[in-house]
User: Which sequence fits this backbone?
């Protein structure tokens, strides 16, 4: 893949592979924060993403990020797993957990 060849050219820059990809894919600031967070931390719940990455509509950002990954022939994609959750009032609900999956990602199932 061309991106891998280019990444070797910037190894000495101190950028991580994910940081380099985020720049070369021309990700928006929100797409970049989502991509880098999931690359570094793996599965993350919606509340954590919203507060640590300042992303209001994670679904919208994930959809646009997936389009850019596809356009760059990157096999990875962001998915959301809905898991049961009990809130502080002991009410049952669900909470989204976001992952970057596919080749070269830390797949978590």
Assistant:
């Amino acid at each position: 893949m061309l991106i891998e060849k280019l990444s070797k050219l910037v190894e000495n820059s101190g950028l991580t592979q994910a940081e380099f990809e985020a720049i070369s894919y021309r990700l928006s600031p929100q797409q970049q924060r989502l991509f880098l967070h999931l690359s570094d931390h793996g599965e993350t719940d919606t509340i954590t993403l919203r507060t640590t990455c300042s992303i209001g509509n994670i679904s919208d950002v994930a959809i646009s990020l997936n389009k850019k990954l596809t356009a760059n022939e990157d096999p990875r994609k962001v998915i959301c797993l809905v898991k049961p959750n009990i809130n502080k009032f002991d009410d049952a609900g669900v909470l989204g957990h976001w992952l970057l999956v596919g080749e070269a990602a830390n797949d978590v199932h």
Summary: The first strand starts at residue 44 and ends at 45. The two ends are 26 Å apart (CA to CA). The CA atoms of residues 33 and 107 lie 19 Å apart. Strands lie at 44-45, 77-86, 92-101.
